[in-house]
Each structure stands twice: as C-alpha cells, then as structure tokens.
Backbone:
C-alpha cells in the first residue's frame, strides 16, 4: 500500500513541476510580486520631515499610526 501511495505522489509531483515549468514559459511569475506600497508612499513626506527634525523611528510610528518597521523601510528607501 505504501509503495502505491509513493508512486502516486511521485506522479503528482511530476505533473505539478511540468505545469509550473509550462506556466513559466508562458510568462507567469511566481512568488511575492514587487508592487506599489500605497500606505508607505502616502506617508513618505511626513516621515522624512519628522526624521529630519530628529524624531525617533518609534516616535514617528506612534504619531502616524504606522509600524516601526514601515517607518524604517521608508527612511531606508529614501536615503
């Protein structure tokens, strides 16, 4: 029984891999897509202004209702 299950699993794995390869040949992209950061782009000017004034990442995040990591990402992208 186990040998039959293993054989079926191998067939499934092979079909999935061939399907993925065919999709990639057609131009499909897999994984997380690089996209627009709508929320981050909306706050960029305010974050950079507060950072230039000497505010900390945590303070900026608290004031604008963002996460500290979002604030850090905005600053890193614009420096």
Residues:
């Amino acid at each position: 029984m186990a040998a039959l299950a293993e054989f079926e699993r191998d067939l499934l794995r092979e079909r999935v891999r061939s399907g993925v390869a065919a999709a990639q040949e057609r131009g499909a992209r897999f994984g997380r897509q690089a996209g627009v950061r709508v929320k981050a782009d909306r706050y960029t000017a305010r974050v950079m202004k507060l950072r230039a004034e000497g505010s900390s990442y945590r303070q900026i995040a608290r004031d604008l209702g963002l996460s500290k990591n979002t604030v850090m990402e905005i600053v890193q992208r614009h420096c």
The two ends are 61 Å apart (CA to CA). The mean pLDDT is 91. The chain has four helices and no strands.
